[in-house]
Specification:
Helix 1 (12-23) links the parallel strand 1 and strand 2. The chain is built from ten helices and 14 strands. It is of the alpha/beta class. The mean pLDDT is 97. The structure holds uridine-5'-diphosphate (UDP).
């Protein structure tokens, strides 16, 4: 069992990963500046409210806690916001990450699991997407993640810095028994917005029904956050066992359209979600589906909660508990 530093552990995916790391017996310390996360998602005893830009404080903490590996979630995640304030994304997602890397190199902690994204691929030439698809981000958010991925390739080559880059597809679902779920402010993600529409009666807007897909709406690979969290455990244990750097897609391999998600919400909640139809959202590729066979083969991970209705049911329970 290892001492693992989780940055952004008060956020959606970070809080679930912290929960599963502890279940697995690991010793976790969370660094989060709480700018977008929630303190109540982290046990107070392990939360350190530190800004990642503060390299010296990170160095002190990593020495005091004898950290062995880092899982780095802390980042801004809104594509739309990144097109309005790109500098915010480069400062926070790249600048703060460089500070973290400096602290890690200074203290000799050279094992990192990094939150990357399917947005690194932009509009992929083929779907399902494999990891050898080239970098082609189409927004500053995706670019900020690609910049870090490239830094990690150089650090691996010249500094023996071992990293697993996990490229997430659409994280959703919740772990309601643990009081954990998705709480973004403002919320921009499809499933929580549809659930909110059911709760409030205010319609959700479907962004485009004229895509070249079977029902005209966009297709995404919705992955349960707990399956995603478990991928981090496989990744960090691989590094702790002396494994090499690598990059993996994390998705179910099954795409669902916006209309299929609406139908799932109706099955789960017993209510028809109110919706209107709007224009396409800028920068939305028609279809993004992961080929995650590399992660399954190399690290032994597999999604255990891949049914869309299970994902929606967990998200719904969390939404009802936090109404
Ligand atoms: N979407 C939608 N209405 C919304 C939010 C999202 O129709 O209010 C669509 C969006 O166009 C995309 C899918 O739902 O095809 C998933 O979007 P989300 O923002 O959840 O994740 P993304 O795929 O952008 O990471």
């Amino acid at each position: 069992m290892a001492k693992i530093l989780v940055t952004g552990g008060a956020g959606f995916i970070g809080s679930h990963t912290r929960y599963f790391l502890e279940k697995q017996g690991h010793n976790v310390i969370v660094v989060d500046n709480l700018s977008r996360g929630y303190a109540e998602s982290v046990p107070a005893a392990i939360l350190r409210q530190i800004n990642l830009k503060d390299t010296d404080r990170l160095i002190d903490l990593m020495r005091q806690e004898a950290v062995e590996a880092v899982i780095h979630f802390a980042a801004y995640i809104s594509v739309g916001e990144s097109t309005v304030f790109p500098e915010l994304y480069f400062t926070n997602n790249v600048g703060a990450t460089i500070s973290l890397f400096n602290a890690m190199l200074e203290t000799g902690v050279k094992k990192l699991v990094f939150s990357s994204t399917a947005a690194a691929y932009g509009i992929p030439a083929k779907v399902p997407i494999t990891e050898d698809e080239p970098y082609a981000p189409i927004n500053p958010y995706g670019e900020s993640k690609v910049m870090v991925e490239k830094m990690l390739e150089w650090l691996d080559k010249y500094r023996e810095f071992r990293a697993i880059r996990l490229r997430y597809f659409n994280a959703c679902g919740a772990e309601p028994e643990a009081g954990l779920g998705e709480r973004h402010d403002p919320e921009t993600h499809l499933i929580p917005l549809i659930l909110k529409a059911v709760q409030t009666g205010e319609p959700v807007k479907v962004f485009g029904i004229d895509y070249p897909t079977p029902d005209g709406t966009c297709i995404r690979d919705y992955i349960h956050v707990s399956d995603l969290a478990e991928a981090h455990i496989f990744a960090v244990e691989h590094l702790l066992n002396g494994g090499a750097s690598d990059v993996f897609n994390v998705g179910t391999g099954h795409g669902k359209s916006v209309k299929e998600v609406l139908a799932s919400v109706e099955r789960v909640t017993g209510k028809k979600p109110p919706f209107t139809i709007g224009p396409r959202r800028e920068g939305d590729p028609p279809s993004l589906v992961a080929d995650s066979s590399k992660l399954q083969t190399k690290l032994g991970w597999s999604p255990k909660r891949a049914e869309l209705d299970k994902i929606v049911a967990d998200a719904w329970q969390f939404a009802e508990n936090h109404r």
